[in-house]
Design goal:
Helices cover 32% and strands 26% of the residues. By secondary structure, the chain is of the alpha+beta class. The chain has one domain (2-166): Gcn5-related N-acetyltransferase (GNAT) (Aminopeptidase), CATH 3.40.630. The longest helix is centred in the middle third of the chain and has 15 residues, at 93-107. The chain binds coenzyme A.
């Protein structure tokens, strides 16, 4: 399994990939609606690709099984979305994509990886916490993360939390 930068020709596949990943939420009655909700648009993916902050985990046919897209915000690389096809979940692809994002943040000289996610979903905040992310309390949120959480609430997403992972400086 290889992680490589997303190419423009991968983008149409990523819509179905994200929909497949979201089927995981069917296990949770209160969030099952997410399995049928909108996924990212192609234009959004293309913006992350052109920023050089989108990566795919591919199989031996070079088909995307997972993607992570992010953007630079202040002193952080903020993860916008991480999705792995339902049948490929639990095999370490999510972690490999996080490794890629962490390496990219380090190369860019950024201090943090940040994201927002569901606090109580077993494969969301607890997964990121095991990877090394810390949950941020409300008083620790900067304006940017506060605005993201508020926007998510306005879109019907509750039980959200913001998390961050410190990126050690590159040795000189
Ligand atoms: C979250 C996600 C990207 C992780 O990708 P992945 O390839 O499955 O991740 P990995 O195989 O590297 O690790 C999965 C971890 O989650 C745990 N996990 C997976 N499914 C789980 C479940 N249903 N219940 C509990 N834990 C679960 C695994 O045990 C593993 O634990 P570990 O950290 O101790 O190794 C993937 O599950 C996914 O696409 N989920 C649906 C979309 C989503 O929630 N995206 C995140 C948005 S913030």
């Amino acid at each position: 399994m290889l992680v490589r930068p997303t190419r423009i020709e991968d983008v149409p596949l990523l819509l179905a990939l994200e929909r497949s990943a979201a089927q995981a939420f069917r296990q949770l009655p209160h969030l099952a609606w997410l399995a049928d909700s909108d996924v990212m648009e192609q234009a959004e993916h293309l913006a992350f690709v052109s920023e050089g902050c989108s990566w795919v985990a591919v199989d031996d046919q070079d088909q995307a099984l997972g993607f992570l897209c992010a953007s630079v915000a202040d002193d952080a690389l903020h993860i916008h979305e991480l999705s792995v096809r339902q049948e490929a979940q639990g095999q370490g692809l999510g972690r490999r994509l996080l490794d890629q994002a962490r390496d990219a943040a380090r190369l860019k000289g950024l201090a943090w990886l940040t994201l927002t996610t569901f606090d109580g979903v077993p494969w969301n905040a607890p997964f990121y916490q095991r990877y090394g992310f810390e949950r941020l309390a409300a008083r620790q949120l900067d304006q940017r993360l506060q605005a993201i959480i508020c926007g998510e609430l306005a879109h019907g997403l509750s039980d959200r939390c913001a998390m961050r992972l410190g990126i050690p400086c590159r040795p000189r």
